[in-house]
């Protein structure tokens, strides 16, 4: 069947779709174009497309139609971003411009000042190295043993000496046994690590944080999904142990919902025990509301006086039972559950009952007219 489709496409003149990726450069009426933008100064007679984004002529080098100050004779393309000539290494990207509120892309061409062209080589996933340093998407970072350096998944890397997270050495890690587990968890023969980037640290943006999970057993450590993991003796939520959870019976309350877990005796929301929740009857209603046979819960807290049998989630934090309306787990005093409903496409209003319009759980003030 696949062979038949190939033959038909070839007959119709679409065979090129199956053979190769078309270069962004082409010549029309004696002018070189990158896509629909003319390169007015390019020498059409000597111009050569090097890949989909790089090209050169006898006098200049181009990235997506933008001229690069490089030596055309020795210029060598390494992939879609990295390139080099006899004296320099370049990293080029077509990036969203913050000055246009990330609505417009612009070509960014960077000369990697400390990079050694002779030893520079591209690895995988945006990584590269020369005889001294490692690079990730053009960003230089120090490496203990450059000869053995290798990228791993999820932003991790290693050499024979140490592991790396987000271009930063993980203190005390054993590089020879280091491995990435997920985007947050990693381990070596001695320890398990939880890593994250703190965007709110007063020291500055994007502070890289690595924490050893004290007491975690690397040999039996496995990630359940998302932020939960376990070993032979403990269950973990991110970097925190659930001290009373049973690793043998821990389970997600609902598959593919990663906020609630339960064992045979307890239910947890993230790393909080939900007091008095019944693991045998607990059910999730959405990412924040849950109920068992006797109680309704908002995250880890029970909603006092709520009727589980008539409780229904409406959306946007709203819910109701036969007697009350709730927003983010708190009763909305005076709201009428019988007439309460969600509202769409009204400015600064998302719900209403017979008496009031509401927005984000509060009565919307009446508009005044002048």
Structure explained in plain terms:
The chain has two helices and 43 strands. β4 (48-49) and β5 (54-56) form a beta hairpin. It has a domain at 314-370. The radius of gyration is 29 Å and the shape is flat. It has a four-stranded antiparallel beta sheet with strand order 4-5-6-7, with no helix packed on it. It is mostly beta strands and 370 residues long.
What's the pLDDT, averaged over the residues? Answer: 92
Q: List the uncertain runs.
A: 1-21
How many helices? The count is 2
The dominant shape is: flat
User: How far apart, in Å, are the first and last alpha carbons?
Assistant: 72 Å
> Main sheet: which strands, in order across?
4-5-6-7
Most strands sheet:
4 strands, antiparallel
Tell me what portion of residues adopts beta-strand conformation.
35-45%
β-strand number: 43
Q: Helix/strand/pairing class, anyone? A: mainly beta
Rg:
29 Å
| Helical content class | under 10%
Protein name: DKNYY family protein
Organism: Larkinella knui
From the structure above, extract its key features.
disordered N terminus; single chain; 4% helix; 4-stranded antiparallel β-sheet; mainly beta; 370 residues
Short description:
With 370 residues, this protein is mainly beta. 4% of the residues lie in helices and 39% in strands. The strands form 11 sheets. Strands 4-5-6-7 form a 4-stranded antiparallel sheet, with no helix packed on it.
């Amino acid at each position: 069947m696949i062979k038949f489709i190939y033959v038909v496409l070839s007959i119709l003149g679409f065979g090129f779709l199956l053979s190769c990726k078309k270069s962004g450069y082409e010549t029309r009426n004696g002018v070189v174009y990158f896509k629909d933008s003319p390169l007015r100064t390019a020498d059409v007679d000597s111009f050569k497309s090097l890949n989909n984004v790089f090209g050169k002529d006898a006098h200049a080098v181009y990235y997506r139609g933008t001229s690069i100050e490089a030596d055309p004779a020795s210029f060598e393309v390494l992939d879609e971003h990295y390139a080099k000539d006899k004296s320099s290494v370049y990293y080029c990207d077509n990036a969203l411009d913050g000055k246009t509120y990330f609505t417009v892309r612009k070509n960014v061409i960077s000369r990697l000042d400390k990079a050694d062209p002779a030893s520079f080589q591209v690895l995988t996933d945006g990584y590269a190295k020369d005889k001294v340093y490692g690079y990730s998407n053009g960003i230089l970072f120090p490496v203990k043993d450059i000869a053995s350096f290798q990228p791993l998944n999820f932003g991790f890397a290693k050499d024979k000496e140490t592991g790396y997270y987000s271009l930063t050495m993980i203190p005390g890690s054993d590089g020879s046994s280091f491995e990435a587990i997920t985007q947050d968890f990693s381990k070596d023969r001695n320890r398990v690590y939880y890593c994250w980037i703190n965007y709110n640290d007063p020291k500055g943006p994007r502070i890289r944080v690595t924490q050893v999970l004290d007491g975690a057993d690397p040999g039996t450590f496995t990630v359940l999904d998302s932020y939960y993991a376990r070993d032979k003796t403990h269950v973990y939520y991110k970097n925190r142990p659930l001290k009373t959870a049973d690793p043998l019976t821990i389970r997600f309350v609902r598959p593919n919902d990663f906020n609630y877990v339960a064992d045979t005796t307890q239910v947890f929301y993230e790393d909080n025990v939900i007091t008095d929740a019944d693991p045998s009857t607990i059910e999730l209603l959405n990412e924040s509301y849950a109920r068992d046979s006797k109680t309704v819960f908002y995250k880890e807290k029970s909603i006092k006086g709520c009727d589980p049998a008539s409780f229904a989630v409406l959306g946007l934090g709203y819910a109701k039972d036969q007697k009350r309306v709730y927003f983010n787990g708190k009763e909305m005093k005076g709201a009428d559950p019988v007439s309460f409903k969600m509202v769409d496409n009204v400015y600064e209003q998302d719900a209403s009952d017979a008496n009031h319009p509401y927005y984000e759980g509060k009565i919307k003030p009446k508009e005044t007219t002048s």
